[in-house]
Amino acid sequence: MGVEEELAQVSPARDMLLTIGVFDGVHLGHRHLISQLKNQVKERDLLSGVVTFRKHPREVVSTHARLRYLTTIDQRIRLLKNEGVDEVVALSFTPEVARLSAREFVGLLQKYLRMCGLVIGPDFALGREREGSAETLRRLGREMGFTVTVVPPMKIGSDVVSSTAIRNALAGGDMKKVRSLTGRLFSLEGRVVSGVGRGRQLGFPTANIDVDPQQALPADGVYATRAYIDDKAYQAVTNIGKRPTFSGEGRTVEVYILDFNGDVYASNLKIDVVERLRGEKKFASAEELKKQIAEDIKQGRAILGSV
After folding, report:
1. Where do the H-state alpha helices sit in 3-133?
2. What residues contact 43, with CB distance under 8 A and at least 6 apart?
3. Rounded to an integer, what distance in angstroms lies between the CA atom of residue 19 and that of residue 50?
4. Which residues pair with 123 in a beta bridge?
5. CB 215: neighbour CB atoms within 10 A?
6. What does the pLDDT look like over 217-263, one tens digit per residue?
7. Tell me: the pLDDT tens digits for 105-158?
8. CATH of 186-306, one of 2.70.70.10, 2.40.30.30, 3.40.350.10, 2.30.30.280
């Protein structure tokens, strides 16, 4: 399906004010931008809309770009809808879209989404070779009849809130910083698949989550987490990494759900990652590992009980 076919499916009832971007992570900076959009919508009696892309434009225009996403497209759409906008439009960013000029792209937004204004960040650009800077869009707006509002970046202390800053914090296992930049706990979800059964052999049966291969993961280590089963939250301890005591091959997400004896195999499991307990470590024996897991559980309970 081409971009025009995707846009034609929306059919808004009246004129719309839009913001556009990947919105990976739907962090506090994104939410600040959307709040400005909603304020204008009230003043101007318009509909609010967010246009997001299923794939990051950088991955399409550069064959070398391989980004890890903070949120899957389904998570992103759900989080954006939770912000209370009238429409979330997810477009497939293709080479065809990459070739559109800024004028052509905003023309399509006017034609199909009844776009009468844009709310953007200071570094935003759209169109072929990112030609549609804020200045260019303002000029096009005067010619084509739409407004452009540039919202300054959001800062927490000296940090500009951005998806890159969150990825960096995630790569360092700094879950407190991730939470401060996103305004919520970092989540992972996926189907529970069969593992090799080592956790069960050790007395700590784990659920192995098959996360999206493009999902950004926290640094390897053991984390205090919450697992959600049938909308009920359970305390859990999760190992993310390569299990160096055993195979040391391929990263896995293994969740030991505390005080739960049910079968979650083949179901979809979501976890919130609360805090890193320790890095991954190679143990001399299975017995030594069992002792450490018991200590991890004790520490995890203490942390989760206070959050």
Report:
1. 3-8, 28-44, 57-61, 73-82, 95-98, 102-113
2. none
3. 5
4. none
5. 17
6. 999 999 999 999 988 999 999 999 986 555 555 789 999 999 998 89
7. 999 999 999 999 999 998 999 999 999 999 999 999 999 999 999 999 999 988
8. 2.40.30.30
Phi-psi region of 197 (alpha: psi -120 to 50; beta: other; left: phi over 0): left
Integer Cα distance of 35 and 45 in angstroms: 15
The pLDDT mean for the chain works out to 92
Q: Where are the domains positioned within the chain?
A: 3-159, 186-306
Cα(66)–Cα(59) distance, integer angstroms: 6
Helices in 145-275 by DSSP H: which ranges?
Answer: 163-171, 175-182, 198-202
| Burial class, 65, CB count within 10 angstroms (exposed 0-12 / middle 13-18 / buried 19+) | exposed
Report the distance separating Cα 215 and Cα 140, nearest Å. Answer: 37
Q: Clarify whether 254 is annotated catalytic.
A: yes
Percent of the chain at pLDDT exceeding 90:
79
Q: Which of 143, 115, 164, 147 is nearest to 14 (CA)?
A: 115
Q: What is the pLDDT of residue 1?
A: 81
**Cα–Cα distance for residue pair 101/129, rounded to 1 Å:** 8
Could you tell me the fold of the domain covering 3-159?
A: Rossmann fold (3.40.50)
pTM: 0.90
Instruction: Assess contact for 257 and 290: CB atoms under 8 A.
Output: no
Of the listed 4, 43, 104, 254, which one is catalytic? Answer: 254
The H or E element containing residue 134 is helix 134-144
* First-to-last C-alpha distance (Å) of the chain: 45
Q: How far apart are alpha carbons 111 and 16 in whole angstroms? A: 11
What is the dihedral angle through the alpha carbons of 85, 20, 177, 65, rounded to the nearest 10 degrees?
Answer: 140
Q: Are 188 and 271 in contact (CB under 8 A)?
A: yes
